[in-house]
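To the wet lab folks,

You asked to see what we're planning to order before we commit. Fair enough. Below is the target structure as tokens, and below that is the sequence we designed to fit it. If anything looks off to you, flag it before the synthesis order goes out.
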């Protein structure tokens, strides 16, 4: 008999959140979306950040700047992942892909710690 206890809040976030709780939930959700690191995942996480920042409360909670910072960090990761086009002096278009060592890559520097 637990009638004297208040019922637990449902998991659909329908209960009124405490100040800052909504922002933290959004940050956690954004981190989960962006975790795989693919362009589509980063785009989805950035879009969610933009939507949350656009709909943030008007009372001026300064903690929302951390969500804006997370959005900027995700945008930086996205910018480093995409291919870049550059034009040479001869007018040729060169596509620079992000660095990813291949299967035959070798270390140019010896290992720091060697265990025998």
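Sequence we intend to order:
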């Amino acid at each position: 008999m637990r009638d004297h206890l208040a019922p637990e809040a449902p998991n659909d976030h329908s209960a009124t959140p405490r100040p800052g709780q909504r922002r933290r939930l959004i940050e956690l959700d954004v981190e989960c979306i962006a975790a795989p690191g693919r362009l589509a995942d980063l785009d989805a996480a950035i879009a969610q950040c933009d939507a949350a920042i656009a709909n943030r409360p008007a009372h001026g909670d300064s903690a929302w700047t951390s969500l804006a910072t997370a959005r900027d960090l995700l945008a930086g990761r996205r910018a480093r992942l995409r291919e870049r086009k550059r034009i040479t002096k001869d007018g040729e278009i060169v596509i620079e892909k992000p660095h990813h060592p291949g299967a035959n890559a070798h270390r140019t520097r010896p290992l720091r710690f060697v265990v025998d």
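Structural context that might help your review: The radius of gyration is 23 Å. The longest strand covers residues 84-87.

Thanks,
Computational group
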